[in-house]
């Protein structure tokens, strides 16, 4: 297809070739473990339907650069807004806790408040696999946007609670619907951007959760500062109502704005859609497959890297769950900041969340040959040092530096999410690995608040020790992933070299919906 298309060629018309026009068996490949795999048309990726449209397509770098800029501007703002909203919703508890919520809901005695954070992740964990199945079976962005609108309604319901029990029920339901968010954006990132582009984009949308911290802390500060006699009911209740309204509005915008795949993008013309398809070939992944594949599900549990993702998710989330729910309490009680100052002290962390991941992604791309696991390991080691400062030093300045070092870990968790997007192929396998990773993440967030025992207040020595241990384990996980992926790439290269001239690249294997272990052309990002 010529790139010098006239204006009529670039009209926003659908591109489509019926899958039953292709051979029932498209090709046969030999996997890394010498297993013969037949690629059937009915099992192929959705992108295979459009393969004839790009058969002779040649990529013009200048045109692709313009297209990439367009994709970034059309998709990243809404993704950023929703991710910001997600963290704002999560950290609302931390702000509300020092704005009178614990007293109003009788949560001042014992460890009742600990379960506020944990309850959210019980809902998240239990519904994580069903949410991934729904995202696979139904239009991805429409399913996500509907979940966002429902979670906004549930968030507003928090304001109507007058005791701990209904509040905890709201937290469980909220977790169930927020569980759609992360797997959706991991899938979307793999669908729209090349592997080399994914870490920066993931750092942007993951890191901009920090804007949610800035906005949430700012709203909470404004409500807390003017709370006396100015509102007909408690300022913490207004906080939940305001954040709920913002969430619902963003869900509506997402429903109409976010396309389910590049092939259905309302803002792309025909030529741009074809470019998107060709760009995805490099990833050895397409647009997804709506059929649940038992073989890919089973492979997920045989792949040792999946358990490493689980352990990393657990290790990152234990400190995360603690900070999200007890961060302001720690600043208020242990560090000695006033209520208003403690709310404001959340803002530097939010700023670090935004700036640092993008900085690390740039350094990684410019100087480390896009080796994400290397940069993530370095950053996680720095966080370990920060946790040592928090645990073992006395001056408030050094302890505060240790406290703020937690926010550096956002760049690492973003890197791990981008590794899942890049290095796990096969739509069912990706959904399963997403689930396992996020179950670990949920378990950690359930455990995290429980490490803050009331009897250890205000210093919470046990919680701080748990944070340090968690980041050490997370660092070991990153090193393990790097070693495994290096070995797998070498094994695939050796197998190809052994075949010599006998090896030929299977036609369109990138769009066969094969797993990373099945596809002989797949190489792991490091």
Automatic annotation (TrEMBL):
Pfam family membership, one: MFS_1
GO cellular component: membrane
Chief site of localization: membrane
Subcellular location(s) of the protein: Membrane
Family per record: Belongs to the major facilitator superfamily. Allantoate permease family.
UniProt name for this protein: DEKNAAC104514
Transmembrane domains' residue ranges: 112-135, 147-167, 205-224, 236-256, 304-323, 343-365, 372-392, 404-424, 431-448, 468-486
Keyword Zinc: no
Membrane topology recorded in Swiss-Prot or TrEMBL: Multi-pass membrane protein
Keywords in alphabetical order: Membrane, Transmembrane, Transmembrane helix, Transport
UniProt-listed PANTHER family: ALLANTOATE PERMEASE, PERMEASE-RELATED
InterPro entries: MFS, MFS_dom, MFS_trans_sf
Domain (Major facilitator superfamily (MFS) profile): residue spans on this chain: 70-492
Species this protein is from: Brettanomyces naardenensis (Yeast)
Molecular functions (GO terms): transmembrane transporter activity
